[in-house]
Amino acid sequence: MTERSPYLSAVALRALVEDGTVSARELVEGALARIAELDSATTAVVAVRAEAAISEAKAADELPAEQRGALHGVPVLLKDLTETTDLPTTYGSRALKDNYAPAEAVVVTRLREAGAIVVGTTNTPETGLRPTTENLLFGATRNPWNLEHSPGGSSGGAAVALALGMVPLAQATDAAGSGRIPASCCGVVGLKPTRGRVPLAPASYELMAGMGTIAPMARSVEDTALLLDAMSGPVLGDPYAIAGSRGATFADAVSRPPSRSRIGLCMTPPHGTLSPEVREVVAAAAGAFADLGHTLTDADVDFSGLRDPVFTVCAATAAAIVDTVPHDRLGLLEGSTLALARRGWLKTAADHVAAVSTMRNESARLLRAMADYDYIVTPTLTQPPPRVDAFPSAEDLDTRWREYLDWMAFVYPVNCTGQPAISIPAGQTAAGLPVGLQIIGRIGDDAGVLALAAAFAQARPWSAQHPPEPVAVAPAR
């Protein structure tokens, strides 16, 4: 097998396959070997399809050039919330550990059609409704920069796999920051696309009143754009679907410098407190936008008014999910899931309608408040990555969710508004933990968000920054 860095981008790997330097089989075998070598320390990957992936890679190597897609031969991991028929879709739950989906998600089919090779699935908290990645089925996923800390969630397994070079691309979800949170915690890139850009079909056409979306995650902005190209496009019946642009691709967008823009820097969370260390890192990093010729000014954007309706929608979602679990398996659900579901059962249909209505009204107000700017820049999170098991117990639901939402204060409002937003590495704390910077764009301007992020990456590159190796085995839970 040809020796190569495990941190090469998907763009670079695709080129190596095309010129015959490496084969798709070598890429897949390399990814599987890296997972086997490092995953015991972090619990990022919960299932692999080694034999099937290698077989598909062999077949890919036989394809003529004209039949090779943009992701030809590139290994990818799926989040264990996304339906695929040849691996269990457990949702991180003991109650669903043997669940197989009757059909795969549209986005999985699109990745395969683009030539990607699915090698496995990544860890998530039970049902994906927590911002850290810990469950009783597989255990806690640990941050490779410090194993005592969380990688965030709910796409924590995907972010860790990327940070450690297991794969160059990972599919995530983002319903209240679930892709951007772990991207920030692990020093990788996570994009929440414009609402309706990437379909959830066919398992669902609705997730958390339009807050949720499938999301691309990678180590570079260029790879994130490449993955978004493969995922995007409307499907019949999707109530949020938006038409894709013809001709130009997101990969094209990141190859060109962004136009001069008005950028507002917002460092005031709607609730909770911003860590002085996070503030310092993000403020220093944001100066790169001014250096690039953009107009950077302080922005007083009021993100408040969304916390209570978002909590109601999360509780209602938990209740709806738990209602689908067979009665004889309810005892296998985690206490935190049941506590949130019970809160949802106490809400009426009118409560839910009122919460969604408030969310829509507050979102419209927020969009108007940001109208004078092309982009808003914020810290992704208000605090550095927490320690594993740092949040309160299931019995203290209100305190736990208040702390969750305080930490997530800059990310979940964007799920309400439907805007595109990306988390990119801004720097590190004194303890060596990653800090993310978030770029928020106007609805539909995913290309602009990606182009601005790519320009920032050229000005302040992070591609040489990786977690320390070898990674020690994590302590037992």
UniProtKB/TrEMBL annotation:
The record's section on SUPFAM superfamilies has: Amidase signature (AS) enzymes
Where would you find the membrane-spanning parts of this chain? Answer: none
Q: Which residues form the Amidase domain?
A: 26-450
Question: Could you state a single Gene Ontology molecular function term?
Answer: catalytic activity
Superkingdom of source: Bacteria
Pfam families (UniProt xref) = Amidase
Q: Which InterPro entries match?
A: Amidase, Amidase_dom, AS_sf
The Swiss-Prot or TrEMBL record describes its family as follows: Belongs to the amidase family.
Protein name in UniProt: Amidase
The source organism is Pseudonocardia bannensis
Lineage here is: Bacteria, Bacillati, Actinomycetota, Actinomycetes, Pseudonocardiales
